[in-house]
Design a protein that fits this description.
- By secondary structure, the chain is mostly helical.
- It folds into two domains: 207 residues, Alpha-lytic protease prodomain-like (Up-down Bundle), CATH 1.20.1510.10; 72 residues, Alpha-Beta Plaits, CATH 3.30.70.1350.
- It is built from eight helices and three strands; from the N terminus they run αααααααββαβ.
- The protein has a three-stranded mixed sheet, with helices on one face.
- Helix 1 runs antiparallel to helix 2 and helix 2 packs antiparallel against helix 5.
- The chain is elongated, with a radius of gyration of 25 Å.
């Protein structure tokens, strides 16, 4: 029953992503054409950001499909569970690169401001606000529990806000003729993009590098497991995120006595219960040992 619910939810998420892709393609094309005609760098920067949205949403859609449709095989024992993390990493890296590029172009434009056809900017900004607003609402729920969907959601909400800024700038340029504001808006947009992309970039990089989750203190795990009387020592410990939801744990457990395999199985269940209830770790690989001559360090330097 739980599997069926998850499958329907993932299918719905994929459909929402697909709809958002088509919306952003239309927005991107209209803004590029309008930006060239009007001479607005801010509008073109918003179009470039929308283009990155399209690419990121396509990557996210593909990752969502692979993560949920492709199962484990003898050659892919984890299936494609890391596809969404890779997508989040690529999306956030692209956002950072675009932000730096726009900032450089804005500085160049600020030294030589030019007249902007503000009415085109205003109308296209309104279209972008409507399109991105719909996409943001579609993906908001999924962004709460999935790093890949959160990356796509942040792309969209940042573009929604930048379109609002472009709209305000267009209005001010129309009525007051302050065309240098176009370059200022572009710089503000670039700083915002950098801020939005950096945390997801770090989070996805840490997962890809197999860092231990920041919310878990490995020494606390050691203390909890050593409460079990039969266990002498726990060493060669590894804790890592497979994706943004699944945490894996492996360790060598040395016993005080040469126990039977059936006894180890019972103790193993107790350890798994501790890991699940206190640390939300539901995938554990435990290697039993007794009087074995190996390194007993908690963290082994391979």
């Amino acid at each position: 029953m739980g599997h069926n619910h998850s499958h329907d939810h993932d299918t719905l998420s994929g459909n929402r992503l697909l709809f958002s892709i088509f919306l952003n393609i239309l927005i991107t094309i209209s803004q590029i054409v309008g930006g060239v005609i009007s001479g607005s760098l801010a509008l073109i920067s918003d179009a470039v950001h929308n283009l990155s949205d399209v690419l990121s949403l396509i990557i996210s859609y593909g990752a969502n499909f692979l993560s949920n449709k492709k199962k484990q095989t003898q050659y892919q024992t984890y299936g494609f569970k890391r596809a969404e993390i890779i997508a989040a990493f690529i999306n956030s890296a692209a956002l950072i690169a675009i932000a730096i590029f726009l900032a450089i172009e804005a500085v160049k434009r600020l030294s030589e401001p030019q007249e902007i056809m503000s009415e085109i900017v205003i109308w296209l900004a309104l279209i972008a606000i409507a399109g991105n607003g719909i996409s943001v609402l579609l993906l908001k729920k999924d962004a709460d529990h999935n790093i890949n969907m959160r990356a796509a959601y942040l792309h969209l909400i940042s573009d929604f806000l930048t379109s609002v800024a472009v709209l305000v700038g267009g209005i001010l340029m129309k009525f007051y003729g302050i065309y240098w504001l176009d370059a200022i808006l572009t710089m503000v947009i670039s700083v915002y993009l950098l801020f939005m992309g950096w945390q997801i970039f770090l989070d996805s990089l840490k997962i890809l590098m197999l860092f231990a989750p920041e919310n878990i203190n490995i020494e606390d795990i050691q203390k909890e497991i050593l409460i079990i009387n039969e266990i002498e020592n726990i060493h060669h410990v590894h804790v890592w995120h497979l994706n943004d939801k699944d945490i894996h744990f492996e360790a060598h457990i040395e016993f005080k006595e040469d126990i039977k395999l059936s006894e180890f199985d019972l103790i193993c269940k107790r350890v798994e219960q501790i890991l699940a209830e206190k640390f939300d770790i539901r995938h554990a690989n435990l290697q039993p040992e007794y009087d074995r001559d190996d390194h007993k360090s908690f963290i082994i330097q391979d």
